[in-house]
Design brief:
- The chain is mainly alpha-helical.
- The chain has one domain.
- The protein has 9 helices and no strands.
- Helix 4 packs antiparallel against helix 5.
- The radius of gyration is 24 Å and the shape is elongated.
- The protein starts with 10 loop residues before the first helix and ends with a helix.
- Keywords: Coiled coil.
Length: 198
């Protein structure tokens, strides 16, 4: 059975090259953040440029700002996920040690069985996660309780990231409003006065 072709565009296909001010080749790309691949930052930039399609250098600057703020929001959302997964992994591992449950030996052992199981649940593929969750639940550990404890234990860090995301979202909305206002002014200037027409 053959796999149907993907309809998701490749990063290079998202932005068709047009005149120089549209390609953004004269401007630096949205910078990658520490720990982020430059390709990911450029992918977000291409998506934002494809969505807003700037028509002038001023629009290009605003779209670059929108792309940078989008990248920051996505990075902070990713950080929240990483913090929670790490905290949940630690809680599950501690609970497994405390319960002293009989855990089946994983195929690819990564240290003690408790560590291997908690890592599979937090970072594994969807299949590995489901299998690990079944074992963890069988050991008497409630996943919902683990998630709640992880949120409480990470509240300070998550609150800071939430504030950063909210601030970037507000700034991004203002940049989009500025872009729309700039385009509206451009359309008004393109319409001749009624006296000139008559």
């Amino acid at each position: 059975m053959t796999k149907p072709p993907s309809t998701t565009p490749a990063p290079a296909d998202i932005l068709v090259e047009t005149p120089e001010y549209r390609s953004g080749s004269h401007l630096p790309t949205v910078p990658a953040a520490p720990g982020e691949r430059a390709l990911d930052a450029d992918y977000i930039r291409r998506l934002v440029h494809a969505q807003f399609a700037p028509d002038s250098p001023f629009e290009e600057l605003l779209v670059e700002e929108i792309a940078d703020l989008t990248r920051r929001m996505r990075q902070d959302e990713h950080r929240i996920g990483r913090i929670l997964r790490a905290r949940m992994r630690d809680i599950v591992e501690a609970e497994l040690y405390r319960s002293n449950a009989n855990i089946p030996d994983p195929r690819d052992r990564d240290g003690p069985r408790q560590r291997a199981l908690s890592n599979a649940w937090a970072y594994g593929s969807p299949e590995d996660r489901l299998q690990a969750e079944a074992i963890i639940t069988a050991c008497g550990i409630e996943i919902e309780a683990v998630e709640a404890r992880a949120w409480i234990a990470s509240a300070k860090a998550l609150d800071q990231l939430d504030r950063q995301i909210a601030a970037n979202r507000r700034q991004r909305a203002r940049a989009i409003e500025d872009l729309e206002a700039l385009r509206a002014r451009g359309k008004q200037q393109a319409i001749p006065d009624a006296e000139e027409v008559s």
